[in-house]
Amino acid sequence: MVSLEVALPDRIESDIDRLVEQGDFLNREQAIEELLSLGLSAQETGDESEEELDEDLFTQAVDEQQDPADQYNDPL
C-alpha cells in the first residue's frame, strides 16, 4: 500500500472527523481511503469527457473570482 502525505483544508479535516465520530467510518484512514475511491469512481463514470470537466472547472473558477476592489461596493 502506498503512503501519501496530503495537506487538507481545516474544513475537510473537520468533515472527515465528523463522519468518523458519527460512525460512518471506523477511523480517519478508512474514511479518507473510501472517500477518495468514491471520488475516483465518480470521475471515471461521469458522462462528460475529461476535457469538458477541465473546461467546466476552469470556467467555474473564473466565474467565481471576485475583484478585491469591489469588496466595498454594495450590489444594486
Explain what you see.
It is a single chain. The protein is mainly α. Helices cover 59% and strands 0% of the residues. It is extended and about 45 Å long. The N and C termini lie far apart (55 Å).
List the helices and strands and how they pair.
Layout: H1 10-21, H2 28-45, H3 50-64
Question: What is this entry, summarized?
Answer:
By secondary structure, this protein is an all-alpha fold.
User: How big is the Rg?
Assistant: 18 Å
| Uncertain runs | none
Say how many strands there are.
0
Helix content: 55-70%
**Biggest pleated-sheet summary:** none
β-strand amount: under 5%
| Mean pLDDT across every amino acid position | 78
Tally of alpha and pi helices: 3
Shape: extended
Q: Structural class of the helices, strands and pairings?
A: mainly alpha
SSE order? HHH
**Distance between the first and last residues' Cα:** 55 Å
Keywords:
76 residues, mainly alpha, 0% strand
